[in-house]
């Protein structure tokens, strides 16, 4: 898989293996089989998807990545670490934000390094639950100090709105990347964020491109589910409501299915490829629990849409009601969206 430059001298795979689905807190009823998860992750890496995204609050995942790296090193040699791009997060507890102490950033990053078994992590991405507690600049500044100390190679952010990103850049704390939710169903990124990141050379990394698995043949011409399996499903079922409801979503699935048939692939691949080709986007995160869709994941960067195909999608998106507002604003301030978040996992 041909890599993309995130910042000068640092390249990532355009398809990133996500880790949230491997967290014990993600699934509502499934247990993660550790040995199988490690073997599957190595298969992703050996297939060219060498960038791994996870987080300090994804229960058990940093340890799982560390075990994967150890096994890969035994299998492939001591240079295994250099083949990977390790992206974690720093997510201070919501209850701690008003009395934030930047020494917490040092403690959490050191803990991540210990869990991973490495001396340096390639990207740490800051998330902040409430803007009313304005210490996010202090947290970001401390991360840049850890970068200067060699513990972090690059600093990113996740789920900030445009006002806050502009504030960071103006303060001389420009992030290398911004990880945000972006899909055909959720195009809040296009309300100024995409252009700003493009103008300021901030790479966008996208999650939610397949809406927690709803972009799938499984849901094509199917009734809206009344019971779901994961927190992702709960989250994106609400996004579908914001988009315009199940009937409009079915129109979008049918359009994606026709395009998928043109390219001998599936709906999920088309949904992710569409996002990957949007302005400023450097990579999309696939949240696979296993390797069952690996072949399709590898196709994502290879899809080339025709003008007619893009037009068929646009016709449906033009009917969409939302979601509207700044990036992550609903998730931060709407109780319906916030109810599925775990904001105090550190």
UniProtKB/TrEMBL annotation:
Please provide, alphabetically and separated by semicolons, the GO molecular function terms listed in this UniProt record: oxidoreductase activity
- The residues covered by the NADP-dependent oxidoreductase domain are 15-317
Protein name per Swiss-Prot or TrEMBL? Unannotated protein
Please name the CDD domains in this protein's record.
AKR_unchar
Q: Which InterPro entries match?
A: AKR, NAD(P)_OxRdtase_dom_sf, NADP_OxRdtase_dom
Q: Which SUPFAM superfamilies match?
A: NAD(P)-linked oxidoreductase (SSF51430)
Originating species? freshwater metagenome
